Amino acid sequence: MDDQELIDLFRKSGFKVTAQRLAVGKNLLSREDHPSAEQIYQSLKKEYPTISLGTIYKTVHLLKELGLIQELGFHEGSIRYDSHRDLHINTVCTTCGKINDHHPKNFQSLWNKILSQLDFEPTGQRIDVYYGCSECKNKT
Q1: Domain holding 16: CATH number?
Q2: What is the CATH number of the domain that holds 125?
Q3: How many CB atoms are located within 10 Å of the residue 92 CB?
Q4: Is residue 57 part of a domain?
């Protein structure tokens, strides 16, 4: 999504476009990792020294409400954000917390078969696979 599309979406949805809100949106939507609000804050505070963590939280909530991102909550209480809303598997390292997207071949057709066996219409999905990444295994 380019800058103008994001601006238009904010305005169409009745939200004010601010430089900080736009920066948070651009930052999060362009990332390949799954950052926390704190990580987004750290990546923006040098360029936007007056930005607050509250602004980050409000903007990611807005992006979630607009259907642009998915919030990933984990058992230890951490929340991360995923801008990839397509069907995929999140692989999560149980040691360092790194999250990667995995797109298995023929996954969509397998998923459609699973959905056809349900007697309800799902409103969302999330599939996480936990493992120890090679970087963490090499440290031990």
Answers
A1: 1.10.10.10
A2: 3.30.1490.190
A3: 19
A4: yes
Structure confidence at residue 77 as a pLDDT band (50, 70, 90): confident
Write out the residue range of the structural domain in which residue 15 sits. 3-73
Residue 79, pLDDT above cutoff 70: yes
Written as six digits, the tokens of 125 are 């999905």
Pairing, β 79-82 against β 70-73: antiparallel
Q: In this predicted model, what pLDDT tens digit does every residue of 89-126 receive, in sequence order? A: 999 999 998 999 999 999 999 999 999 999 998 888 89
Domain boundary among 18, 47, 73: 73
Do 67 and 111 contact (CB within 8 A), yes or no? no
Residues 6+ apart with CB under 8 A from 130: 91, 92, 93, 94
Please name the helix (run of DSSP H) or strand (run of DSSP E) that holds residue 102, with its range, or none.
strand 99-102
- 79 within a domain of the structure (yes/no): no
pLDDT of 25? 96
Q: What is the pTM of this model?
A: 0.83
Instruction: State how far the Cα of 34 lies from the Cα of 69, in Å rounded to an integer.
Output: 10
